[in-house]
Amino acid sequence: MPLPPRRSGLDEGLTMMVHEWLIQAGAPATGARQTNVVWNARMRTTAGTAQPGTSRIELNPALLGLGEAEVHRTLRHEAAHLLAHWRAGRRRIPTHGTEWRQACVDLGIPGERATHTLPFPRRKMAPKYFYQCPACRLTVRRVRRITRATACLRCCQAHSGGHFDSRFQFRRIPPPAAGSAQPPAG
């Protein structure tokens, strides 16, 4: 069945397809049936996104030019994010961690990569925020501000058994002066 040339909005056919995939993979029926697939014409650099809080998958309309197989693969990739999140419950999980990889297997895309190699333009943003560990002086560059308590993993592993320790919480530092060497990445 060929895909409709949609540019934005709800895609009922893909939504029903995802409902079936998720239920077959063991997703809770209520979560699977609440999932919606929409085309987002504002997407430029990413193939798709999944939002577990709203059970919504957004796809880049440029995928339509790459063929039905690529749309379905991207849709399974994003559905795996929802499935992994539902299985984890309230526990925080890495975006492309073990739970997501297992969900990919269950949805028929074993060995799925975390990032795509599609011909979409890349966006490179310069880091604006710089943080440093007070113990080892590791400097971390970030595009976005750190909004929750975050500590140096190396120091927490070495001195706190891998558990969060506020002694190693990153502290914001001023950006380096223009023309000076960038601090080492963390």
- How far apart the termini lie comes to 47 Å
Sequence of secondary-structure elements: EHHEEEHHEEHE
Number of strands: 7
**CATH superfamily of the largest domain, please?**
Metalloproteases ("zincins"), catalytic domain
What class do helices, strands and sheet pairing give?
Answer: alpha+beta
The radius of gyration computed from the alpha-carbon positions, rounded to a whole number of angstroms, is 20 Å
Quickly give the CATH architecture of the largest domain: 2-Layer Sandwich
Kindly report the average pLDDT value. 90
**Judging from the principal axes of the Cα atoms, what is the shape?**
globular
CATH class of the largest domain: Alpha Beta
Query: How many structural domains are formed by the residues?
Result: 2
Poorly predicted regions: 1-5
Account of the 3D structure:
- There is one protein chain.
- This protein has 186 residues and is an alpha+beta fold.
- It has two domains: 9-106, Metalloproteases ("zincins"), catalytic domain (Zincin-like); 129-173, no CATH class.
- The protein contains five helices and seven strands.
- The strands form two sheets. It has a four-stranded mixed sheet, covered by helices on one side. Strands 6-5-7 form a three-stranded antiparallel sheet, with no helix packed on it.
- A hairpin with a 4-residue loop joins β3 (48-51) and β4 (56-59).
- α3 packs across α4 (98-106).
- The chain is globular and about 55 Å long.
- The N and C termini lie far apart (47 Å).
- Residues 1-5 have low confidence and may be disordered.
